[in-house]
Specification:
By secondary structure, the protein is mainly beta. The chain contains four helices and 30 strands. The chain has three domains: 62-197, no CATH class; 267-392, Beta Barrel (Lipocalin); 407-500.
Length: 503
């Protein structure tokens, strides 16, 4: 009998285990790791500039990744998914998401933001709320959440640009969910919708230790909006308005105003520079050194803009970074440039340039790992002055060299023909190649960079160029190198010795 009882219990246990496995497989079960259905996706468009970041300063802070646009619900093919932000926004074990998209059936429409949450009564994910932002330039969008009010709640900040060349910031506040509610469409409210031709930053303040421990409230952050002072006849005069949160109206309202006088620039010349993207690119072409607070040139920080080669060089205390100039967007006071590192294409950076005078500009860098509205300065932020003749500066980290020459050099295995328009051709024993070239100097090292325009997809090579004095030196040795965070690094390759061919 005991044996029969044991067999019966064993059979029952086996059946229960099988039923449990079946339940785990077929029954829906939401989880913080992205449970729920993965739906077919809408059409993917140009990715946003900012890449993912998360800070432990507040559990409310998340930033949308640049590549992952997987949504938990189905979006129509007419909806172009731009950015997706996942997180536990209600501090529960179920993951929700914000999805930024545009309706392609109406190309002039602004970017829409929708909240996708889990409805236990379905049970499945669904859209719980949708609202419009002020962004129309998709490639400038940044999506971020933050405890903006200091009460532990979540504010969703959507930043970017519109077709008028203005910077915009739309802030939605998430109210805590009511007990047992499944529809949260009325739990969102717009607390700020700002636009300007200058810039928008969040003015963060230090919060108490009690707030950091979740035991008390913190001070609300302010929003600083800068732009042209339309009450002034001088087009370069600026006005800076600080907005603070008003509990009665439930919105950010102006709190203080500061007027910043600008340089006097002839209106005709100003309109000429700002007339088109090409005009402003031509204006900033060349070498710009950062200005110190005392108004002197800081020789340790500079930027070199090369619109023809579509490159920007960033130099900071011995470290040179080269970025490809992806595209430019005109603003009312300057230019917004999207770039990516020539070695790491997923390392992106945006450069916001405003005209200060005919010889100076103000630059704000939007780093890849920071949303553009957080207001955290980079080493390159500040005013810059154009250097017409860098040779006149002592202890200059950059010496001007002739970027282009008109000469032919011949070696044992290759003949290089340099043309004055910035292009080159090679005659090799194997495969001829062609592309663009440029000579430049870092500290006391002269460099030569090639960019090939063949099937290599724009491959680049950098060489240390050792040659005689003068543009058309008789001999030149090229040693392959790499420009990295440590400066110029020589590669373990045989040098190429060339001799000038008399023509």
């Amino acid at each position: 009998m005991a044996r029969n009882i044991f067999r019966t219990l064993t059979t029952i246990s086996f059946i229960i285990a099988i039923l449990g496995i079946v339940a785990l497989i077929f029954l829906p079960f939401p989880s913080s790791s992205g449970g729920g259905r993965t739906a077919p996706q809408g059409r993917l468009v140009t990715p946003r500039i900012a890449d993912p970041t998360y800070t432990e300063a507040s559990p409310s802070e998340y930033s949308a990744p640049g590549g992952d646009v997987t949504t938990k619900i189905h979006f129509p093919e007419t909806d172009a998914i731009i950015s997706v932000l996942n997180g536990n926004f209600y501090a529960d074990p179920i993951e929700e998401q914000f999805v930024a998209y545009r309706d392609l059936s109406n190309p002039s429409s602004p970017v829409q933001l929708t909240f996708v949450g889990y409805d236990a009564t379905l049970p499945d994910y669904k859209r719980m709320w949708t609202n419009s932002t002020s962004i129309t330039r998709l490639e400038t969008l940044s999506l971020y959440t933050q405890d903006l009010l200091g009460d532990g709640s979540v504010s969703v900040l959507v930043s970017g640009m519109n077709d008028a060349g203005e910077y915009t910031l739309t802030v939605f506040h998430m109210l805590p969910p009511l007990a047992g509610e499944t529809d949260r469409s009325d739990r969102f409210r717009t607390i700020a919708d700002l636009r300007t031709d200058g810039g928008i930053t969040v003015k963060e303040v230090r919060r108490s230790q009690l707030y950091q421990l979740g035991l008390g409230l913190g001070e609300s952050f302010g929003i600083v909006v800068s732009g042209r002072d339309f009450q002034s006849e001088n087009l370069t005069d600026q006005i800076e308005v600080t907005y603070q949160y008003d509990t009665e109206s439930g919105r950010f309202i102006p709190d203080s105003t500061v007027r910043i006088p600008g340089a006097q620039i002839a209106q005709g010349r100003l309109q000429e520079i700002l007339s088109s993207v090409q005009s402003f690119e031509s204006f900033i072409s060349g070498l710009w050194f950062q200005l110190t607070p005392q108004g002197t040139i800081d020789r340790n920080i500079y930027m070199y803009f090369n619109p023809e080669m579509r490159e920007i060089m960033f130099y900071d205390n011995g470290i040179l970074q080269v970025f490809t100039w992806r595209n430019s967007l005109a603003t009312r006071t300057g230019l917004y440039i999207a770039t990516y590192n020539i070695s790491l294409s997923n390392l992106r950076r945006a450069v916001d340039i405003q005209l200060e005078s005919l010889s100076s500009i103000r630059i704000r860098l939007i780093e890849d790992i920071r949303p553009q509205f957080r207001g955290e300065a980079t080493p390159w932020d500040g005013s810059y002055q154009k250097v017409a003749s860098p040779r006149d500066l002592t202890d200059n980290p950059v010496e001007t060299v002739t970027a282009r020459i008109n000469a032919t050099y011949k070696g044992e295995t290759v003949t290089l023909r340099f043309l004055p328009n910035g292009t080159f051709t090679t005659s090799e024993t194997l495969t001829p190649r062609a592309g663009n070239y440029a000579f430049f100097r870092v500290n006391d090292i002269e460099l030569l960079e090639f960019q090939y325009n063949d099937d290599s997809g724009g491959e680049r090579e950098t060489y240390v160029a050792t040659r005689d004095q003068g543009e058309n030196s008789r001999t030149m040795r090229l040693t392959q190198a790499r420009i990295g965070t440590r400066g110029v690094e020589m590669l373990n390759e045989y040098p190429l010795d060339l001799t000038l061919v008399e023509e």
